[in-house]
Each structure stands twice: as C-alpha cells, then as structure tokens.
Amino acid sequence: MTATDTPTVNAALALGDDALILSHRLGEWAGHAPELEEEVALANIALDLLGQARFLLSMAGDEDEMAFLREERSFRNLQLVEQPNGDFAHTIARQLYFSLYQHELHTDLAAGDGPFAGLAAKAVKETAYHRDHAVQWTLRLGDGTEESRRRMRAALDALWKFTGEMFQPVEGLDGIDWAVLEGRWLTALTGVLEQAGLAVPEGPRTGAWAAGAGRQGLHTEPFGRMLAEMQHLHRSHPGASW
Amino acid sequence: MVAVTPESGQDSGLGADLGAQLAAAFDAAVAADERVEPRDWMPEEYRASLVRQMAQHAHSEIIGMQPEANWITRAPSLRRKAILMAKVQDEAGHGLYLYSAAETLGTSRDELLDKLHSGRQKYSSIFNYPTLTWADVGAIGWLVDGAAITNQVPLCRCSYGPYARAMVRICKEESFHQRQGFELLLALSKGTPEQHAMAQDAVDRWWWPSLMMFGPPDDESAHSAQSMAWRIKRHSNDELRQRFVDIAVPQAETLGLTLPDPDLKWNEERGHYDFGPIDWAEFWDVLKGNGPCNEQRLSQRRRAHEEGAWVREAAAAYARKHAAAPAAAARNEEARV
Ligand SMILES: [Fe+2]
Ligand SMILES: [Fe+2]
User: Fold this and answer.
1) Distance from CA of A195 to the nearest CA of B (A)
2) Ramachandran assignment for B43, one of left (phi > 0), alpha (psi -120 to 50 degrees), beta (any other)
3) What is the rounded average pLDDT of the residues B132-149?
C-alpha cells in the first residue's frame, strides 16, 4: 500500500498527512490547555485539519487504511508537524510556521484549476483563522512578559530547522512557484515577528538530512511513538469496523 | 421580577420590614414561575446555593473532558476521532457558559477554579472512574451524558434565568453526545465478538456509577427540599433516577447488551422498572476522594492550570500594554486572550 502511484495521489498524501499529523498533535492538548478558551480554539483547529485530512486521504484510498495501516516510512508529512507539542510556545511557533505556509499554499492552489482547487478554496478560510490564532498568540507571547518572550524565542529557534522542508517542491502540485511561495512566507513571518518584538531566527533551515526528508518518508524519532499510539487500537482488531 | 438592585437589597442597612417584603415578593415570584435575573433582589442563601450548584456543574464539565480526552489519540477511525474531539470541545464550551452564568452572580471564574483546585468545591464523582477501553467512550456518551440530560432538562426551567438559558443550549449538545455514544456502542455490539465483549464490559462498569449520578436517596439529600422550593430543582433524586432507568432499559435491549442488575424487571403496578440496591458506601467513598481517579483528575487539572499560568500572565501583560489601542484589542477578541 505505497499508494504513491500517481502525482495526484502523492500530493494528496503529502497534504493529507500534514493535516492528519498536526491535527493529532493538537488533539493531545485536550484537557491540558492553559485556559478554557484555548481548549476550544485548539480543538477547532484540530477539527478543521482533520476534516482536510479525511478529504485528502480519501483521494488516495480508504481514509482509515491510509491513517491507521501505513507504516512510518510511508507517511509523507513534513517533519515540522510531527514535532511534539512542547510548551505552549512551541505549539504556537509550530502553528505560526505551518499556518503561514499552509495559508499561502491554499491561496495558490485555490487560484488554480488542479485537483486540489476545490479543497483549497474551502480550506483557505479555515487556515486564515489558524494563521490569525497563531499570529495573535505570537504577539502576546513576544510582547507579554519576560518569561513568555524567552519561551517564544526558544521555540522559534528550536523549530526553525524544520521550516526549509516546506518549500521543497511536491510532485503533483503543479503551478506552484515554490521560491515565490517561500518569499511570501518569509515576508509574512518577518512582519509578525517584528511586530512581536522578536527576531527572525538565524541558522540553516534545513540540514543535509532534513531537506525534504518527511516528504520522502524519513521522520524524527518521536513520530514512531506517536503513530504507535494512534494506530494501536485500529490494528488490534483487523478488519473490524467502528 | 422585583426590580431592586442587589446592592440595595442586601441584609445590611435595610429596615426589617423592607427585607421581609422583598423576601415575600421573591418567594411569590418564584412560586409563580417567574425568572430571577442577575439584577433582581434575591436571598443570600438562594445566591449561594445557585453559585454552589453552577460551580459544581461547571467543574464537572471541565473535569469530564479528561476521561474522554484519554481516547482522542487512540480513536480507531477518523470519523470517530472527529466526533470525539468535537465532543470534548463541547464540554469545554459548557464549562465556559456555566462559569459565565456564575459570574452573573458576582463570582469570578478564577475564584471558582481556585476552589476546585484546592478541593473546596466538588465535581461529579462519575469522572473519578477510569476509561479503560474504547467502549468506555460509548458508555460515557450513552449513560453519563444520558443521566446528565435526565438531570438537566428540568434545569432549563430553573428559576434563575442565566442558568436556565445556559442549560437550554447545553442540553441540545448533550443529546447529540448521548446519541453518538449509543451509536458507538451499537457498532461495537454488532461488531466482532471482541468488540461486543468490550461494549458489554464497559456497560457493566458504568451502569451503577451512572445511577449514582442522581445523588443520594431523597431522605439523605442535604439541599434538595430548599432547592425544590426555590425552583432550582424540580424533581427529587429518586424520581430522576427512576426516569433514567425507565429510558435506559429498552435502549440496552436495542443495543443487544445486558445491564448488570439481576433485580431489574418491569413492575406492572408501578409502571416502572424495579432495580436492585445501589452501593451507597461506594458512592460516599468516591465522593470523599477514594475513587480510582480522584487524585489523577484533580492533579491533571491543577497541572494544566499551573503550567498555563505564564501564558495567561503574558496575555494579561500584553492587554495592559495595548489597552490604549482599542482597535487592536477588538481585533484580537477572536483569538480571545
Ligand atoms: Fe457537557
Ligand atoms: Fe456531554
């Protein structure tokens, strides 16, 4: 079940896995968020992403087979989205990097006439909210207290090395100018961080090992444990329906 | 209702005559099923009783997120995962409505959370039981949300307006949860033998604690009589428990599952199901803190609150710095900080 037969399926898995895995990570916050309003907001975002994932994975096959029966090496998501939640600043930094990217990407896809235009047109409204949520928190953490600024800076730095992968071309997403997309992302990010009084992190945004790794099925160690938890029940009852 | 502001109506500084008149007017209005609104005069004991009940209810909503959130990361299909995440989110929303309703009586959310965290206020004991298998998610939806609905539908006509209105909204969502739980159990019951056994085991474990959710028998219930007179409560614990049993028994038959009570049988004369004795010793023990998860639930809640302190402080500091820019503040409302 490698299911990367056609470029469209390949792209559906890349985008679908991003949404599925990030949704799962956000779902881990349930019952642990810093305040009730955030319980609601994080669940909203997780549910939007899960909806996107279900649509996209269904383009590649049965959504549950795709989610629960693939091995770690068959997942095509970015390494960024599989990173553990960490503290709230890490979660917000991950959201900021990813939602700025996803929003730009959906905007481009929605403007085209490829197989993802319909989904992107709907999802772009959702990702606009995800982006605003991340931006508002970045401003508050960056321009809040000494501690929040320190934590936000550490989080942005820690996840920086996973951001280069977002702009590796994905086979099956035609008509995307990845360099232009990256430029827009960086401009948007710089604007937010400046407003928050935070510097754009320095250092490489990929390593030799990380360039496009997730898209090729190379993941980080925490991902295997995440999948083990996610897939365990489904795999324990082969063929059962739920 | 009596249009007297709370400040002018408190006991101090009032003539005894006026106080008695207000109390009489209040009693008459409540007896006539008029709604009490936040700015109306009300007896201090009525206010305190409502705050206690609404706080306990709000705490139950947010502690109740934990046993089900325990299964979000392991949900066996994406459809079930979406339903469960949305349900746990709804419970957070219920907590929000109820803390807001309690705020109309002059008690802040922070104050109430503090009482929860320090153990001075309780939450429903049902959440001190563990969710051991996926089927527990279904059993909670069917039985626990089901019992909550039986308890709460009458609260939609509670004498205190903000509470009654919050309950209308909450009950609608709880009935979704109940149906979803039922449907989850039905799928398991009709599934593989292992799935069926999982469903039966969950129902066996959740049945009796669900009956305890209605509280002690009427003759041992501390606040019942006064709450009934004030129209905060409209039916006795035992009445509601009976109503729940009568609804659940035929549903269990539809599910193809049995209920763990050999004494359960239809009583033609009473027009109700008879059921066996409830183990009240267990109920009081769990209430006292000796349930399987009391410690775990409360410490997770405290930890989330403590670990979130720096986030809330950052948001407050930001709000103070930008208080001079109302346009920005309005724009930020969406992200709610
Ligand atoms: Fe609820
Ligand atoms: Fe519920």
Assistant:
1) 12
2) beta
3) 98
pLDDT tens-place string over residues A68-105:
999 999 999 999 999 999 999 999 999 999 999 999 99
SS3 label, residue B160:
strand
Domain boundaries, chain A: 7-236
What is the per-residue DSSP string for B176-227? Answer: HHHHHHHHHHHHHHTS-HHHHHHHHHHHHHHHHHHHHTT-S-GGG-SSHHHH
Ligand whose nearest atom lies closest to the CA of B57: 1
Q: Which residue of B has its CA nearest to A229?
A: B74
Q: Which residues contact B163 (CB under 8 A, 6 or more apart)?
A: B50, B54, B98, B101, B155, B232
Q: What is the DSSP string of B223-274?
A: SHHHHHHTTS--S-HHHHHHHHHHHHHHHHHHHT---S-TT-EEETTTTEEE
Separation in Å, CA of B39 to nearest CA in chain A:
27
Which pLDDT tens digit goes with each residue over B167-178? 999 999 999 999
**DSSP states of A201-228 as a string?**
P-S-S--TTTTTTGGGT---HHHHHHHH
Average pLDDT on B278-285 reads 96
Cβ distance of A30 and B72 shorter than 8 Å? yes
CB contact under 8 A, A145 and B195: no
Residue B104 Cα, gap to closest chain A Cα (Å) = 18
- Residue pair B72/B85 in contact (Cβ under 8 Å)? The answer is yes
* pLDDT for position A95: 98
Question: Amino acid identity, residue B132?
Answer: L
ipTM of the complex: 0.96
Rounded to a whole number of angstroms, the distance between the first and last alpha carbons of chain B is: 35
- Taking the CA of residue A38 and the nearest CA in chain B, the distance in Å comes to 8
Query: What number of other Cβ atoms are within 10 A of residue A103's Cβ?
Result: 23
Ligand 1 geometric centre to CA of B246 (Å):
22
**What does the alpha-carbon distance between residue A171 and residue B263 come to, in Å, rounded to a whole number?**
65
For residue B332, how far is its CA from the centre of ligand 1 (angstroms)? 27
In terms of CA atoms, which chain A residue is nearest residue B317? A144
| Burial of A34 (C-beta count, 10 Å sphere; 0-12/13-18/19+) | buried
**Which chain A residues are closer than 8 Å to B76 by Cβ?**
68, 233-234, 237, 240, 242
Of B74, B213, B240, B217, residue with least CA distance to B143: B213
Which residues on chain A are in Cβ contact (under 8 Å) with B85?
27, 30, 43, 46-47, 50
Note if the pTM is more than 0.80. yes
Which whole number is the average pLDDT over B302-313? 98
Tokens of B336: 């709610």
Residue A135 C-alpha to ligand 1 middle, in angstroms? Answer: 30
Q: Which fold is adopted by the domain A7-236? A: Ferritin (1.20.1260)
User: Among positive and negative, which fits the CA dihedral A24, A27, A29, A34?
Assistant: positive
Is there a contact between A78 and A18 (Cβ–Cβ < 8 Å)? yes
Mean pLDDT in chain B?
Answer: 91
Indicate which ligand has the atom closest to the C-alpha of B98: 1
CA–CA separation, A228 and A231 (whole Å): 5
Mean pLDDT of B127-133: 98
Would you state the pLDDT for residue B337? 42
Instruction: State which residue of chain A sits closest to B93, comparing Cα positions.
Output: A40
User: Residue A23 C-alpha to ligand 1 middle, in angstroms?
Assistant: 23
Say whether B36 sits in a helix, a strand or coil. strand
